[in-house]
Amino acid sequence: MIVDRKKETPVEAASLYECHLIHKHDSHKTRRQALDRLVHLYTWANDVGVDLDRQLLSGEGFTQPQARSFAAWLRKRWMQDNGVLPYTKRKTLNSTLMGCSVICRWFISQFARPESETKHKRVIDLEILLSAQKRIWKELNVKIRKESVAEDLSDEEIMKIESFLRPENRSGLVGWDIATRDYLIWRIAIEFGLRIGEILALRVEDCPTRSTPYFRVMRIEERDLNYFDPRRDPPRPKTLSRDLGILLDNSRFPNLVNEYVSTNRYVPVIHKGKKKKRFNLPHRFLITARSGNPLSQKMASKIAQKIKQGTGVDFHWHLARHAFFNRAYAAAAEIQDREEKKIRMADLIVWGGWESPDSLDIYSRRARRERAKTPLKIWQHGGNVWNALN
Fold it and tell me: Domain Tyr recombinase: where (predicted)?
């Protein structure tokens, strides 16, 4: 909820838009992102003395000078001391402007009342207003170099992380259960290229067993009607649902999952004055906190921070996904047979859970860049063994 700082009361237009977001989006993160953009608009309006509530609720949208003023205000906030807007902030600026455009056009569609002679003419005039508003915001986008490449982890960095996270090396500091949990998250991320949100949303029944040797990634809306996630900000897989089999000959699965579930996925309790481990938890999520509750995204980020501190590698969880797909793409690109290569590339799109082949572009650009320097060795030497993970 967005509150007026002076009156300490909910802002009317913002409250209406929040209701719209609740009905339109299931994802808490998506709703929060849209509201963050609305907060930017209100903060700017307060700074320059614009009655934004009146303007939005009358369906006026933004004038071109107002939109330019807002964009300049954002750039000033995100600009470096040398006057340069960093690449990441350029992307943030464009996405923020696009989000603000969506907000303004929604209010126009709801509250604008063109004074037209007929109903048909009013519909046309409304479309003209919406198109004009979209154009005003689009013209403010800053140029972004599109030749971006996926980040990567070197094999040396992977070996550092692997060594740091192994339970036998870390259990003395955090306990065997936490060490095994963190190592499990890492191996799922690096072996299968899953997003951290997908990993946190995994349930025990989604994991590989000897009879069903694959992970099942399932979108929230495709789960059963009784599905419930007690987390305040539940992780939601962004990608398409898919089943992912065990790829590497030196994989730690399914044994690692079995070990974790049977000995480390529990909540400590006191029973008749004695400490006990309760393995029957009130939820089915695989990855848990010390309390037995499903692990939050905030805590997962803290684990990534500990990896960064313990290894010196500038690590975040999405790097593991990039490291997997950089190697998987480069391996597929080396296939000489055209039809086989085409099939392998299509398999990669399914594996990544993407809807569009364009999602592979950042990996193809990195592969081309690496080939320009030196031949890229995928799994180093020999078959499907990734030696950095031994």
Answer: 148-377
